[in-house]
Fold this sequence. Notes:
The two termini are 22 Å apart. The chain is 35% helix and 19% strand. A hairpin with a 4-residue loop joins strand 4 (120-124) and strand 5. The protein has a five-stranded antiparallel beta sheet, with helices on one face. It contains three helices and five strands; from the N terminus they run βαββααββ.
Amino acid sequence: xxxxxxxxxxxxxxxxxxxxxxxxxxxxxxxxxxxxxxxxxxxxxxxxxxxxxxxxxxxxxxxxxxxxxxxxxxxxxxxxxxxxxxxxxxxxxxxxxxxxxxxxxxxxxxxxxxxxxxxxxxxxxxxxxxxxxxx
Length: 135
């Protein structure tokens, strides 16, 4: 899905209770910027945050855009859509649209003062990666 991003901790941890105080404090502001950038780039009505850390035992969050009128992105249906795409049962995002959204989100996430959030990284469905406040 165009606009789907993953945010993960730069160091290894498997559970939210393993976060250091500075990592916890920086996550909120970074997620606020990331969700604002995804909403702006995609036009979605909200961004869902999902975290299971089962398939990959590393602390990470999926940021999934919820689009009005698209039932496949409504509530838990978005997780079903993700699994169908992963299994090849549903088409992935249009590559040109996904790249366009990725560039817009990356520009926002790589700009500005993000001092203190360097412990968080992001990546998108196109494979573009970055760190909070830098590329």
